[in-house]
Design goal:
This protein has 242 residues and is α/β, with parallel strands linked by helices. The protein has six helices and nine strands. The structure holds S-adenosylmethionine.
Length: 242
């Protein structure tokens, strides 16, 4: 039990593996023979091991920095892309511990924000519905929010339910392309005409953009902010105009 909100560490297994790999590489760098002869090739084993060790530990450190600091700045950047009226119906797809859901809830007055997730602990540490409920209570937004356990690829909401749909670092976790594209179609289906989806991810954003355009939506791409996100996160601003 914590006494303050906890938004978890994204991809905790990946971070652990990066630090493990860097540890192994540093041991190799210290104790392996300096040169490795591979037929006519001579490889500088120690230099290579140092480079791998530094690369892996830097990546692990930057991912931790994103999880502890950067994601709050990234969340604010995403939420500033919409001009809030306060009456919006909002959906956060893959809400996890409620990062975007809570940010949106603070910007609405008469509106309502719903977060959906399948609560996968490999994608986010401590990922569970009751922990997200606790974060909503800590942040004082319980009344304005609800949570539902459902997948992005098959949502229970009627067509044209939401003015704003948000999603950060969720869709790439759907590993097969047809299901990812189905999730994009679901986002289009439940978004109101005149509504906006703000979708952020570190890969496959070209694929999502194409899927949204194929459904007749307008897509604007925003460059990643390299100071606040690692891996760099692109943002798609998707408008359903007709
Ligand atoms: C890296 S976490 C990001 C959580 C949150 N959006 C954030 O930015 O802090 C990815 C989230 O996507 C969720 N997720 C993965 N596949 C999903 C799916 N098919 N439908 C809904 N959520 C999914 C995971 O359970 C996890 O909570």
């Amino acid at each position: 039990m914590t006494s303050k909100p906890d938004y978890g560490i994204d991809a905790p297994g990946v971070i652990r593996n990066l630090f493990l790999a860097s540890g192994c590489a540093f041991v190799l760098a210290l104790f392996a023979p300096a040169l490795l002869h591979l037929g006519p090739l001579v490889v500088s084993l120690r230099v290579t091991a140092w480079a791998i060790g530094i690369g892996c530990s830097a990546s692990g450190f930057l991912m931790l920095l994103y999880a502890k600091k950067g994601k709050f700045l990234h969340r604010d950047r995403m939420l500033k892309l919409h001009i809030w009226r306060g009456s919006e119906q909002v959906l956060d797809v893959g809400t996890g511990r409620g990062l975007l859901l809570i940010g949106a809830a603070r910007r609405i007055t008469t509106g309502h924000a719903i977060g959906i997730d399948i609560w996968n602990k490999d994608d986010l540490s401590g990922n569970a519905l009751d922990r997200t409920e606790r974060n909503l209570a800590f942040e004082g937004v319980t009344e304005k929010c609800s949570l539902a356990s459902e997948g992005a690829q098959k949502m229970s909401f009627p067509n044209e339910s939401f003015d704003v749909i948000l999603s950060n670092l969720c869709l790439h976790n759907i590993y097969d392309q047809p299901t990812r594209l189905q999730a994009c179609k679901e986002i289009v289906r439940v978004l109101k005409t005149g509504g906006m989806a703000i979708i952020s991810d570190y890969k496959s954003t070209n694929e999502y953009a194409k899927a949204f355009r194929n459904e007749g939506l307008r897509v604007e791409r925003k460059r990643p902010n390299l100071l606040t996100t690692y891996p760099p996160l692109r943002i798609l601003v998707v408008r359903k105009t007709q």
